[in-house]
Amino acid sequence: MPKVVSRTSFLKDSLDVYINRALTNWRIPGVAVCIVKDNNVVLMKGYGIKELGLPEKVDENTLFMIGSNTKAFTATALAMLQDQKNYRWTIM
Q1: What is the mean pLDDT of residues 84-90?
Q2: Which residues contact 44 (CB under 8 A, 6 or more apart)?
Q3: Contact 48, 24 (CB under 8 A)
Q4: Among 16, 49, 67, 79, which is most exposed with the fewest C-beta within 10 angstroms?
Q5: Cα separation, 27 vs 41, whole angstroms
Q6: Which residues does the UniProt record annotate as the domain Beta-lactamase-related (predicted)?
Q7: How many domains does the chain have?
């Protein structure tokens, strides 16, 4: 009789493989991932290490510097507000 694999464990295992491959291919030391569905945390996990050459691993509580990504977050939030008709772009 073949082993039955749950959908949840298959997706998690597939995600682990994908993320670990991406860390290698993109030469990224580490990343923290959080997946939320229907206001519930489905996965919260760290992958890799915090800094090249050091052994400390990334976990779900690792803080990362986000650089100038705040501009992208702000633009995305404004676009979402416009889509919900709560904001209107204006041209000056």
Answers
A1: 82
A2: 32, 33, 34, 35, 60
A3: no
A4: 67
A5: 27
A6: 25-86
A7: 1
